[in-house]
Prior knowledge:
Elements: E1 6-10, H1 14-26, E2 31-35, H2 38-47, E3 53-57, E4 59-60, E5 63-64, H3 66-71, E6 77-82, H4 87-94, E7 98-101, H5 106-119, H6 128-135, E8 145-150, E9 153-158, E10 162-168, E11 171-176, E12 181-183, H7 188-194, E13 200-204, E14 207-210, E15 214-219, E16 225-229, E17 238-239, H8 244-251
Parallel strand pairs: 1-2, 1-3, 3-6, 6-7
Antiparallel strand pairs: 4-5, 8-9, 10-11, 10-14, 11-12, 13-14, 15-16, 16-17
Helix pairs in contact: 4-6
Amino acid sequence: xxxxxRVVIIEDEKPAARLLARRLDRFGFTDITLLHSVAQGxxxxxxxxxxDLIFMDIQLSDxxxxxxxxxxxxSSKLIFTTAYNEFALKAFKHNSIxxxxxxxxxxxxxxxxxxxxxxxxxxxxxxxxQLRSILLGEEHKYKARFNVRVGQQIKIISxxxxxCVYSENKGTYLFSKQGDCYLLDYSLDRMEExxxxxxxxxxxxxxxxxxxxISSIAIHSNSRLKVVIKGFQSDACIVSRERVVExxxxxx
Length: 252
Protein backbone atom coordinates (compact mmCIF):
# COMPACT_ATOMS: atom_id res chain seq x y z
CA UNK A 1 0.00 0.00 0.00
CA UNK A 2 1.20 3.51 -0.84
CA UNK A 3 0.23 4.72 2.62
CA UNK A 4 3.03 2.60 4.03
CA UNK A 5 5.67 4.63 2.17
CA ARG A 6 7.18 7.82 3.59
CA VAL A 7 7.70 10.56 0.99
CA VAL A 8 9.67 13.82 1.16
CA ILE A 9 9.31 16.63 -1.39
CA ILE A 10 12.19 19.11 -1.51
CA GLU A 11 11.01 22.04 -3.65
CA ASP A 12 11.60 25.76 -3.05
CA GLU A 13 8.47 26.83 -4.94
CA LYS A 14 5.85 26.21 -2.28
CA PRO A 15 2.80 26.18 -4.61
CA ALA A 16 4.55 23.61 -6.82
CA ALA A 17 5.40 21.51 -3.76
CA ARG A 18 1.80 21.58 -2.52
CA LEU A 19 0.50 20.71 -6.00
CA LEU A 20 2.82 17.71 -6.25
CA ALA A 21 1.73 16.59 -2.76
CA ARG A 22 -1.92 16.70 -3.82
CA ARG A 23 -1.15 14.70 -6.93
CA LEU A 24 0.71 12.10 -4.86
CA ASP A 25 -2.20 11.96 -2.44
CA ARG A 26 -4.38 10.80 -5.32
CA PHE A 27 -2.01 7.85 -5.77
CA GLY A 28 -2.52 6.88 -2.12
CA PHE A 29 0.54 8.44 -0.48
CA THR A 30 -0.45 9.82 2.92
CA ASP A 31 2.85 10.38 4.75
CA ILE A 32 4.30 13.35 2.83
CA THR A 33 6.76 15.93 4.19
CA LEU A 34 7.40 19.24 2.38
CA LEU A 35 10.81 20.92 2.59
CA HIS A 36 11.80 24.09 0.75
CA SER A 37 15.57 24.59 0.91
CA VAL A 38 18.97 22.94 1.13
CA ALA A 39 19.16 23.93 4.80
CA GLN A 40 15.78 22.37 5.60
CA GLY A 41 16.73 19.20 3.72
CA UNK A 42 19.98 18.80 5.66
CA UNK A 43 18.30 19.47 9.01
CA UNK A 44 15.42 17.08 8.35
CA UNK A 45 17.63 14.19 7.22
CA UNK A 46 19.89 14.72 10.24
CA UNK A 47 17.02 14.21 12.67
CA UNK A 48 14.66 11.78 10.91
CA UNK A 49 14.84 8.22 9.53
CA UNK A 50 15.37 8.04 5.78
CA UNK A 51 12.13 8.21 3.77
CA ASP A 52 11.28 5.64 1.14
CA LEU A 53 11.04 8.16 -1.68
CA ILE A 54 12.34 11.71 -2.23
CA PHE A 55 11.16 14.12 -4.92
CA MET A 56 13.97 16.66 -5.18
CA ASP A 57 14.24 19.84 -7.20
CA ILE A 58 17.84 20.45 -8.29
CA GLN A 59 18.13 24.23 -8.10
CA LEU A 60 16.86 25.43 -4.73
CA SER A 61 16.80 28.99 -3.44
CA ASP A 62 19.91 28.49 -1.28
CA UNK A 63 21.94 26.18 -3.53
CA UNK A 64 21.97 22.86 -5.39
CA UNK A 65 20.14 19.96 -3.79
CA UNK A 66 23.28 17.85 -4.30
CA UNK A 67 24.67 19.59 -1.21
CA UNK A 68 22.07 17.70 0.83
CA UNK A 69 23.15 14.36 -0.61
CA UNK A 70 26.84 15.09 -0.11
CA UNK A 71 26.27 15.77 3.58
CA UNK A 72 23.73 12.98 4.07
CA UNK A 73 24.32 10.00 1.73
CA UNK A 74 21.04 8.11 1.49
CA SER A 75 19.60 4.90 0.10
CA SER A 76 16.15 6.38 -0.49
CA LYS A 77 14.74 6.18 -4.01
CA LEU A 78 15.26 9.58 -5.71
CA ILE A 79 13.13 11.26 -8.33
CA PHE A 80 14.53 14.59 -9.46
CA THR A 81 12.17 17.28 -10.68
CA THR A 82 14.13 19.49 -13.04
CA ALA A 83 14.09 21.96 -15.90
CA TYR A 84 17.46 20.67 -17.12
CA ASN A 85 17.56 18.46 -20.20
CA GLU A 86 19.82 16.33 -22.41
CA PHE A 87 23.13 16.10 -20.53
CA ALA A 88 21.52 16.09 -17.11
CA LEU A 89 18.90 13.53 -18.09
CA LYS A 90 21.58 11.23 -19.49
CA ALA A 91 23.47 11.46 -16.20
CA PHE A 92 20.31 10.70 -14.22
CA LYS A 93 19.70 7.52 -16.22
CA HIS A 94 23.26 6.34 -15.82
CA ASN A 95 22.93 6.73 -12.06
CA SER A 96 19.67 4.71 -11.94
CA ILE A 97 17.76 7.82 -10.87
CA UNK A 98 14.33 8.70 -12.14
CA UNK A 99 13.54 12.25 -13.20
CA UNK A 100 10.58 14.42 -14.16
CA UNK A 101 10.87 17.43 -16.43
CA UNK A 102 9.00 20.53 -15.34
CA UNK A 103 6.18 21.16 -15.86
CA UNK A 104 5.43 17.66 -14.65
CA UNK A 105 3.15 15.68 -16.97
CA UNK A 106 0.59 13.38 -15.33
CA UNK A 107 1.59 10.40 -17.48
CA UNK A 108 5.27 10.80 -16.58
CA UNK A 109 4.46 11.12 -12.86
CA UNK A 110 2.35 7.97 -13.00
CA UNK A 111 5.11 6.05 -14.76
CA UNK A 112 7.72 7.19 -12.21
CA UNK A 113 5.49 6.06 -9.34
CA UNK A 114 4.92 2.67 -10.95
CA UNK A 115 8.66 2.34 -11.40
CA UNK A 116 9.14 3.15 -7.71
CA UNK A 117 6.57 0.51 -6.74
CA UNK A 118 8.50 -2.14 -8.66
CA UNK A 119 11.96 -1.08 -7.52
CA UNK A 120 11.61 0.55 -4.11
CA UNK A 121 13.92 -2.02 -2.54
CA UNK A 122 16.75 -1.27 -5.00
CA UNK A 123 19.32 1.19 -3.68
CA UNK A 124 20.10 4.24 -5.76
CA UNK A 125 23.57 4.15 -7.29
CA UNK A 126 24.26 7.86 -7.07
CA UNK A 127 27.36 9.64 -8.33
CA UNK A 128 26.75 13.12 -6.96
CA UNK A 129 29.98 14.56 -8.31
CA GLN A 130 29.22 13.40 -11.84
CA LEU A 131 25.80 15.01 -11.75
CA ARG A 132 27.15 18.22 -10.27
CA SER A 133 29.87 18.44 -12.91
CA ILE A 134 27.46 17.99 -15.80
CA LEU A 135 24.90 20.41 -14.43
CA LEU A 136 27.53 23.07 -13.80
CA GLY A 137 28.57 22.86 -17.42
CA GLU A 138 31.84 20.97 -17.31
CA GLU A 139 32.76 19.56 -20.71
CA HIS A 140 31.57 16.07 -21.54
CA LYS A 141 33.44 14.53 -24.47
CA TYR A 142 31.65 12.12 -26.77
CA LYS A 143 33.31 9.94 -29.40
CA ALA A 144 33.78 11.41 -32.87
CA ARG A 145 34.53 8.11 -34.62
CA PHE A 146 34.47 4.34 -34.16
CA ASN A 147 36.75 1.59 -35.45
CA VAL A 148 34.95 -1.42 -36.93
CA ARG A 149 36.34 -4.62 -38.37
CA VAL A 150 35.54 -5.54 -41.96
CA GLY A 151 37.12 -8.90 -42.70
CA GLN A 152 40.84 -8.40 -42.11
CA GLN A 153 40.52 -4.62 -42.40
CA ILE A 154 39.83 -1.91 -39.84
CA LYS A 155 37.43 0.77 -41.01
CA ILE A 156 36.90 4.15 -39.36
CA ILE A 157 33.27 5.32 -39.13
CA SER A 158 32.60 8.95 -38.30
CA UNK A 159 29.76 9.66 -35.89
CA UNK A 160 28.35 11.91 -38.62
CA UNK A 161 27.85 8.78 -40.76
CA UNK A 162 25.84 6.84 -38.16
CA UNK A 163 22.14 6.48 -38.92
CA CYS A 164 21.30 4.20 -35.99
CA VAL A 165 22.69 1.61 -33.61
CA TYR A 166 20.77 -1.51 -32.66
CA SER A 167 20.98 -4.82 -30.80
CA GLU A 168 20.28 -8.16 -32.46
CA ASN A 169 21.14 -11.75 -31.51
CA LYS A 170 23.26 -10.58 -28.57
CA GLY A 171 25.33 -8.30 -30.82
CA THR A 172 25.42 -4.53 -31.24
CA TYR A 173 25.41 -3.16 -34.77
CA LEU A 174 26.01 0.21 -36.40
CA PHE A 175 23.94 1.08 -39.48
CA SER A 176 25.55 3.81 -41.55
CA LYS A 177 23.96 6.51 -43.66
CA GLN A 178 25.54 4.77 -46.64
CA GLY A 179 23.47 1.67 -45.91
CA ASP A 180 26.23 -0.50 -44.48
CA CYS A 181 26.01 -2.55 -41.29
CA TYR A 182 28.93 -3.18 -38.91
CA LEU A 183 29.32 -5.24 -35.75
CA LEU A 184 30.54 -3.17 -32.79
CA ASP A 185 32.63 -4.10 -29.77
CA TYR A 186 30.42 -2.03 -27.46
CA SER A 187 27.10 -2.86 -25.80
CA LEU A 188 24.09 -0.69 -26.61
CA ASP A 189 24.21 0.77 -23.10
CA ARG A 190 27.84 1.78 -23.65
CA MET A 191 27.03 3.28 -27.06
CA GLU A 192 24.36 5.41 -25.40
CA GLU A 193 27.08 6.83 -23.15
CA UNK A 194 29.49 7.47 -26.01
CA UNK A 195 27.09 9.21 -28.40
CA UNK A 196 26.13 12.87 -28.05
CA UNK A 197 22.53 12.98 -26.70
CA UNK A 198 21.86 16.10 -28.77
CA UNK A 199 22.27 13.99 -31.92
CA UNK A 200 21.22 10.49 -30.81
CA UNK A 201 18.29 9.14 -28.81
CA UNK A 202 17.59 5.68 -27.41
CA UNK A 203 13.99 5.05 -28.37
CA UNK A 204 13.70 1.59 -26.77
CA UNK A 205 15.82 -1.23 -25.35
CA UNK A 206 17.19 -2.19 -28.74
CA UNK A 207 17.59 0.98 -30.81
CA UNK A 208 19.49 4.28 -30.73
CA UNK A 209 18.61 6.57 -33.63
CA UNK A 210 20.32 9.58 -35.19
CA UNK A 211 18.34 12.78 -35.49
CA UNK A 212 19.51 13.55 -39.03
CA UNK A 213 18.51 10.08 -40.29
CA ILE A 214 14.85 10.26 -39.32
CA SER A 215 12.71 9.98 -42.43
CA SER A 216 9.27 10.07 -40.81
CA ILE A 217 7.43 9.60 -37.51
CA ALA A 218 3.96 8.10 -37.21
CA ILE A 219 1.47 7.52 -34.42
CA HIS A 220 1.60 3.88 -33.35
CA SER A 221 -0.52 1.70 -31.05
CA ASN A 222 -0.69 2.17 -27.28
CA SER A 223 0.40 5.83 -27.38
CA ARG A 224 3.73 4.93 -28.97
CA LEU A 225 5.49 6.35 -32.02
CA LYS A 226 6.98 4.56 -35.03
CA VAL A 227 10.15 6.05 -36.50
CA VAL A 228 11.39 5.38 -40.02
CA ILE A 229 15.16 5.66 -40.49
CA LYS A 230 16.42 6.40 -44.00
CA GLY A 231 17.54 3.17 -45.65
CA PHE A 232 17.01 1.05 -42.52
CA GLN A 233 14.52 -1.75 -43.10
CA SER A 234 12.99 -2.53 -39.71
CA ASP A 235 9.59 -2.50 -38.05
CA ALA A 236 11.17 -2.40 -34.58
CA CYS A 237 11.97 1.33 -34.43
CA ILE A 238 9.15 2.02 -32.00
CA VAL A 239 9.48 4.71 -29.34
CA SER A 240 8.48 2.97 -26.12
CA ARG A 241 5.54 4.51 -24.32
CA GLU A 242 7.55 5.73 -21.34
CA ARG A 243 10.00 7.58 -23.64
CA VAL A 244 7.52 9.34 -25.92
CA VAL A 245 7.42 12.61 -23.96
CA GLU A 246 11.21 12.78 -23.66
CA UNK A 247 11.55 11.91 -27.35
CA UNK A 248 9.24 14.75 -28.38
CA UNK A 249 11.25 17.15 -26.22
CA UNK A 250 14.45 15.88 -27.83
CA UNK A 251 13.07 16.57 -31.31
CA UNK A 252 12.61 20.22 -30.41
